[in-house]
Amino acid sequence: MKFIHCSDLHVDSPLDGLERYPGAPVDALRGATREALENLVELAISRRVDFVVIAGDVFDGDWRDINTGLFFVSQMRRLDRAGIRVYVKKGNHDAASEITRVLAMPSNVFEFPVRAAHTFRVDPLPVALHGRSFPERAVPEDLAAAYPRRVEGCLNVGVLHTSLSGYAAHDPYAPTTLDTLRGLGYDYWALGHVHARQVLREREPRIVYCGNLQGRHAGETGPKGCELVEWVDGELRAESVALDVVRWARLALPIDGLRDASDVLRAAERAFREAHERADGRLSAWRLQLEGVGPVHRWLAAHADVAHTELRSIADAASGGHAWIEKVRLLCRAPAAAVAPSADDPLSECLRLAGELADDPARLCAFGDASLRDMVAKLPSALRSGPGSLGLDDPATLAALLREAEALLLDRIAEGAR
Predict the structure, then answer these.
(1) Omega before 113 within 30 of 0, i.e. cis
(2) Which of 43, 44, 17 minimizes the C-alpha distance to 29?
(3) How many CB atoms sit inside 10 A of residue 415's CB?
(4) Strand spans (E) along 126-205
(5) Which portions of the chain are predicted below pLDDT 50?
(6) CA-to-CA distance for 30 and 25, rounded, in angstroms?
(7) What is the distance between the alpha carbons of residues 276 and 140, in angstroms, rounded to a whole number?
(8) Could you tell me the pTM of the whole model?
(9) Contact of 89 with 123, CB cutoff 8 Å
(10) I need a labelling partner for 377 at 20 to 30 A (CA). Which of 47, 121, 335, 409 fits?
(11) 3-state DSSP call for residue 408?
């Protein structure tokens, strides 16, 4: 017996602000969630699974385009024609979605109810699926605590959209604990809500966040897909299958030991080729982070536009046109002894302050907030928060900006010393 555990499809999730990025493959990025779902359906059919479990967030909140819903229904009909049933738990985004209220699903799609936990028997298979859909977007209580006990003689699968204790980066919806999940005696927990795959427990029970089907921005990196689970003679076997169409990655490029611009570009080409191979030929979206300490930092900071253009061109060539650099971040710095600042010079005073802020991240964040608050308030909302934002509340972004300022100050001080 085989089944697929997937979650967080976010079909047609809007990717705001892509037009701001030079060379962004806008059409490919916006169609990626649909293609990933098509890949899921093809996998289910080709591997002849018995059923599919979707652990929440098929859609994306208030996204109202009915064509999104019709596309999902068409994919469910493909599974229906193959004799594959689908069990869907509505997550926090589905509960807020207008699409889910008007769609008529095919007969092979079963939704967990919202009023109380329910058990589906997957006849004639010895399988019991336990779950409850979100009645509304914000669910502060532990839904799993009221799930039914295991059904003896069956493979018991719990389906839960949850923020387990310790996931502060995610909205705390339907929070629960590993002890609660273990106490119900199930064999497998199909979790959703957290977009990064994690196997929280290998067995007895196996507890897995499968992650989302398709990364949508630079914060959702690495392979994305589903869990293909097989139950043979009372033993669970599982594998993670990548289904993503666009692979997001953060690439670190150390500048330590690099002497000049040519060294940087050669090192970047090697890194790009390796990243392209890791993506198995997929379209890739990279956030490049230049790290470490070296004199070439001064060139990178002083000629940022030229450097970024060169790096994007090399990425395109190294990947055969299958990669795009979403952003370049200077997280590197020049050697501290490159210039001897004067004690009384205003530029040297700025350089001293920059050094103090670099050594104290909390102070840097407070300084950034106080300095940039009025400007940030005037920005469009898409630039203030979310994946397309400028990231001015992000410590890493502030650190990168600080290092660029340090390089410019060092250049000015060096010019004055000549």
Answers:
(1) no
(2) 17
(3) 9
(4) 127-131, 155-161, 188-192, 198-201
(5) 168-169, 338
(6) 9
(7) 42
(8) 0.82
(9) no
(10) 409
(11) helix
